[in-house]
């Protein structure tokens, strides 16, 4: 029982400092997922509608990023780029690495969603005089993005968990804070149990919010995904 | 071209690291396979207690980042780093694999189980001899995705001190003063080919194990 009380006292004591780290983790997640969304959408459009050259470039990008570990990508950007004269601070390096990484995965989700919108939609849009670009923007994407929500929410949660890698280059996020705190009080196990709980709470929260969003933007009668 | 000499000299050292990476990979996929099948069977066929327990374990393991799991295991158990990584990453993989196997088990028609039972097989026998052999074949496709993501995640074992390919490349970079871009670029390619080779092997296996007349992933 006293061990229990002790544990909660520790949680209470280090909570505020861990929450500082949590804020950085959430910021990093938000920045990466947004930049990944923009790049990923562009890449997916390149893969579906691009000419041979654009298709080749975007496909190589996606395959290379998805075929190599995030940790290696992070190290290439943080430790490797200084070799060619580009020095980045840890947080920025982590942001870029995670953003590029998630963009490749998001591109694949968007591509799948775009391709599952039936081709008749495009033909119909073109036949009433819309431009190709207009049709993509006003007809295809509004449907495709709705279909992509479930897989996209998985990606968001993956990204949230992968921000923990940023500590390997010294970005001050949740894991880094936990390591510093644990190195001072030598209560490694307990500190990481608290960290695990923080992640579980955030992940559960995100899942609930995204389920709500999916329900909210659903158009009745339009469920070509299933 | 001093760097080429360095690379040629260090290649064996790096490749011994790759060997450790592969050991780790096989170990964690094995733990994940056993754990995953058990969790999936408990979730689908277990009574209320077992299925709730399986779902809770699986959700919890999926919500915690791999790095946190690695550190937790590292400070909770007094074992060699390689074994710790196999356990931590293997448990996490079992949560993901359980979802793959659950999907596969549920896509086997319930008539199969009824037929097995009506022939006098026990429930366990029905699962082992009738449902699982079919489900596992269906699961190979999605399982290859899990293989690819676990291959990449073996690099995380570096943080608890496993001297695998990431850590070895780190050492090489430190004592050759630089060349980080080149060395990590090579490591990236090694992972890329490891992922590709494994996936081709799994596709071949899927083809090989296919029973004519049975359903197949399109």
What does this structure look like?
- Chain A is mainly α.
- Chain A has helices spanning 2-49, 52-67, 70-80, 90-116, 119-127, 132-162, 174-185, 188-217.
- Helices cover 81% and strands 0% of the residues of chain A.
- In chain A, helix 3 crosses helix 4.
- The model of chain A has no long low-confidence stretch (mean pLDDT 88).
- Chain B is mainly α and 218 residues long.
- Chain B has one domain (2-209): MetI-like (MetI-like fold).
- Chain B has eight helices and no strands.
- Chain B has helices at 2-45, 48-63, 66-76, 81-106, 110-118, 123-153, 165-175, 180-209.
- The longest helix of chain B has 44 residues, at 2-45.
- The radius of gyration of chain B is 21 Å and the shape is elongated.
- The N and C termini of chain B lie far apart (50 Å).
- The A-B interface holds A 64, 66-73, 75-76, 79-84, 157, 161-162, 164-165, 167-168, 175, 188-189, 192-193, 195-196, 199-200, 203-204 and B 60, 63-69, 71-72, 75-76, 148, 151-156, 158-159, 166, 173, 178-182, 184-185, 187-189, 191-192, 195-196.
Brief digest:
The complex is a heterodimer of chains A (226) and B (218). Chain A is mainly α.
The average pLDDT value of chain B, as a whole number, equals 88
CATH superfamily of chain A: MetI-like
Total domains of chain A, how many? 1
The secondary-structure class of chain B comes to mainly alpha
Which CATH architecture of chain B?
Orthogonal Bundle
Please give the most extensive interface between any two protein chains, plus how many residues each contributes: A-B, 35 and 37 residues
Global mean pLDDT of chain A: 88
Query: Which fold name corresponds to the CATH topology of chain A?
Result: MetI-like fold
The gross shape of chain B turns out to be: elongated
Radius of gyration of chain B: 21 Å
Number of strands of chain A: 0
Helix content of chain B: over 70%
CATH class of chain A: Mainly Alpha
Radius of gyration of chain A: 21 Å
* SSE topology string of chain B: HHHHHHHH
Low-pLDDT ranges of chain A: none
């Amino acid at each position: 029982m006293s061990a229990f009380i002790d544990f909660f006292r520790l949680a209470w004591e280090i909570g505020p400092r861990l929450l500082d780290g949590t804020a950085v983790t959430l910021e990093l997640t938000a920045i990466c997922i947004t930049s990944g969304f923009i790049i990923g959408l562009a890449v997916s459009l390149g893969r579906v509608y691009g000419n041979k050259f654009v298709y080749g470039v975007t496909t190589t990008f996606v395959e290379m990023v998805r075929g190599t570990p995030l940790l290696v990508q992070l190290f290439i950007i943080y430790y490797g780029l200084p070799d060619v004269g580009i020095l980045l601070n840890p947080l920025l390096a982590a942001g870029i690495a995670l953003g590029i990484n998630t963009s490749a995965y998001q591109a694949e989700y968007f591509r799948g969603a775009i391709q599952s919108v039936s081709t008749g939609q495009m033909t119909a849009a073109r036949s009433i005089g819309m431009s190709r670009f207009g049709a993509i923007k006003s007809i295809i994407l509004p449907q495709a993005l709705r279909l992509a929500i479930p897989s996209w929410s998985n990606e968001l949660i993956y990204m949230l968990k992968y921000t923990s890698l940023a500590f390997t280059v010294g970005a001050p996020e949740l894991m880094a804070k936990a390591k510093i705190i644990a190195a001072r009080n030598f209560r490694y196990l307990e500190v990481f149990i608290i960290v695990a709980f923080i992640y579980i709470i955030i992940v559960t929260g995100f899942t609930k919010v995204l389920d709500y969003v999916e329900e909210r933007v659903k158009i009745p009668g339009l469920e070509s995904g299933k | 071209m001093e760097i080429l000499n360095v690379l040629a000299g260090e290649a064996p050292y790096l490749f011994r690291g790759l060997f450790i990476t592969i050991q780790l990979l096989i170990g964690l996929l094995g733990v994940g396979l056993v754990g995953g099948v058990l969790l999936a069977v408990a979730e689908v066929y277990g009574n209320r207690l077992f299925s709730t327990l399986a779902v809770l374990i699986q959700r919890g393991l999926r919500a915690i980042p791999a790095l946190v799991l690695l550190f937790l295991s590292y400070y909770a158990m007094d074992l060699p780093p390689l074994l710790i990584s196999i356990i931590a990453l293997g448990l996490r993989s079992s949560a993901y694999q359980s979802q793959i196997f659950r999907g596969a088990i549920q896509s086997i028609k319930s008539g199969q189980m009824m037929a097995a039972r009506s022939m006098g097989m026990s429930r366990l026998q029905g699962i082992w001899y009738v449902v699982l052999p079919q489900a596992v074949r269906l699961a190979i496709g999605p399982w290859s995705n899990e293989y690819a993501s676990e291959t990449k995640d073996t690099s995380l074992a570096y943080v608890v001190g496993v001297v695998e390919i990431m850590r070895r490349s780190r050492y090489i970079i430190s004592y050759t003063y630089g060349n980080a871009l080149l060395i990590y670029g090579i490591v990236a390619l090694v992972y890329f080919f490891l992922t590709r080779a494994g996936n081709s092997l799994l596709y071949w296996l899927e083809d090989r194990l296919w029973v004519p007349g049975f359903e197949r992933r399109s």
